[in-house]
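Hey, can you fold this one?
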Amino acid sequence: MKRIILFLALVLAMVSSIAAGTLASYTVAIDNLAGGSVVAKEFIFVGEGTDTFQEGLKIAPSETLQWQFKVKNYEKYVISETDIYYKLTFSISASPGKKAIEPLTVTVRDGMGTILNQVTGVGTFDLLGSFLLAETGQERDILVEIAWPSESKSDKDYAGEKFGTSIIVDAQASQVPLDSSPNPETPEPEQGQVSVLYETTPPWQNGQSGEYQYQYKITITNNSSVPIEDWFMTFLLQSDRLNNAWNAKLISRSPQGIYRFENPAYNNVSMDNILPGQSVSFGGLASGMGVDTLQNIGVGGSNTGLISNVNVIHQP
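Sure. Predicted structure:
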């Protein structure tokens, strides 16, 4: 049975004064989006009026879907006459009245295919960009890729009407640079206050398979004053392959090397939560040489948003 993912976004049109450049600075955001047409898949930062669109897609294990939209500073012959700084906020959460499809990995890429950010399960992150003043209009392509790894829990675990995931994109624009900031509805520890230590042993060759293996250990430290309850962690490890874990649950592993680990659910506060000033560690066996570093790390919990600005140290 395929599950439905709901995507909500909008064509955000700023007040007409942005084209004339009469305002020194301003900020406009539109939240709580509704359904509408599936035709206008653009954020346009000029002109008057607003529009929205809604799109429902179905997905099953081992499938990957893509969804694309544009960000523009022009509409037909009207081009913004000021520098435009924009922020796109991606919120991946359970649909109203449902539980999230936990194995889903949402990857956001630019028009060249470069990964800008990733979330497995639920989380929130910002993408910042700008259109500097120019005589011609400018636009950028944003590609949203949704994958359900084949190695995750079976579809039966998410059957029925109790499960659904929504991806909401909010847009904000200004004539002055914008900062990436957490969603006020999902408080999180200060950015940069979580650190990750990735330790790998020297590799050895398996005598039967000839495959190189090593042992890994990941330590997450909470340096903030806010506890991270029921912690989870996502990251990208492209070349090596983590095969199992102790003191944590390996929830999903995609063919592209995107991992999601969760707390072991031992009903032990010191293991399931990361208290202020404390650390948790987990590890296991891996295949490869152990030379790659974890990338695109995200750490979060049931009481926090996704923390994507994480300090990482790799000690081979």
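Confidence is low (pLDDT under 50) at residues 10-40, 47-53, 182-186. Let me know if you want another pass with a different chain boundary.
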